[in-house]
C-alpha cells in the first residue's frame, strides 16, 4: 500500500526521503487546522520539538510555511505549494 503524503510535503530543493515526507505530512495536517507554535505542533503530531523545527524551517525555505510574532513563533501555512485535491467538490 502506497503511503498518502500531503502534496506540500514534497520539497523542491532537498531530497525527499520517506521519513521526512511522513514528518512533514503530520506537521502540515496540524497547520491546516490552525496556526500553531512548534511545541503545539510537536504534541499534536507526536514528533519531537527538534524534528518539528527542522521541517518547519525546510518548509519555510520553500515558502510553504511562515512564522509570525516573537519567539516562540506561531507557524502557519502560506498559499504556496501544491494543493490537496478535494474529491467531494469535483464534478
Word description of this protein:
This protein is α+β, with helices and mostly antiparallel strands. The protein has a domain at 16-77: Orthogonal Bundle (Arc Repressor Mutant, subunit A). The chain is 41% helix and 11% strand. The protein has helices at residues 18-33, 38-45, 49-61; strands at 36-37, 65-68, 74-77. Strands 1-3-2 form a 3-stranded antiparallel beta sheet. The chain is globular, with a radius of gyration of 13 Å. Mean pLDDT is 89; it is low at 87-91.
Strand order of the largest sheet: 1-3-2
CATH architecture label name of the domain at 16-77: Orthogonal Bundle
Radius of gyration: 13 Å
Helix content: 40-55%
Order of helices and strands: HEHHEE
Largest sheet: 3 strands, antiparallel
Query: What is the helix tally?
Result: 3
Instruction: Compute the separation of the termini in Å.
Output: 27 Å
Per the CATH scheme, the topology name of the domain at 16-77 is Arc Repressor Mutant, subunit A
Stretches where pLDDT is under 50 for at least 5 consecutive residues are 87-91
Shape: globular
CATH class of the domain at 16-77: Mainly Alpha
Fourth-level CATH superfamily of the domain at 16-77? Winged helix-like DNA-binding domain superfamily/Winged helix DNA-binding domain
Roughly what fraction of the amino acids lie in strands?
Answer: 5-15%
Give the rounded overall mean pLDDT. Answer: 89
Derived from helix and strand composition plus strand pairing, the structural class reads alpha+beta
Can you count the beta strands? 3
Amino acid at each position: 500500500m502506497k503511503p498518502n503524503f500531503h502534496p506540500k510535503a514534497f520539497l523542491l530543493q532537498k531530497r525527499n526521503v520517506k521519513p521526512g515526507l511522513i514528518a512533514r505530512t503530520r506537521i502540515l495536517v496540524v497547520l491546516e487546522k490552525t496556526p500553531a507554535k512548534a511545541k503545539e505542533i510537536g504534541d499534536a503530531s507526536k514528533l519531537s520539538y527538534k524534528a518539528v523545527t527542522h521541517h518547519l524551517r525546510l518548509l519555510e525555505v520553500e515558502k510553504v510555511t511562515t512564522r509570525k510574532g516573537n519567539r516562540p513563533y506561531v507557524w502557519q501555512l502560506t498559499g504556496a505549494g501544491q494543493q490537496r485535491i478535494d474529491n467531494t467538490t469535483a464534478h
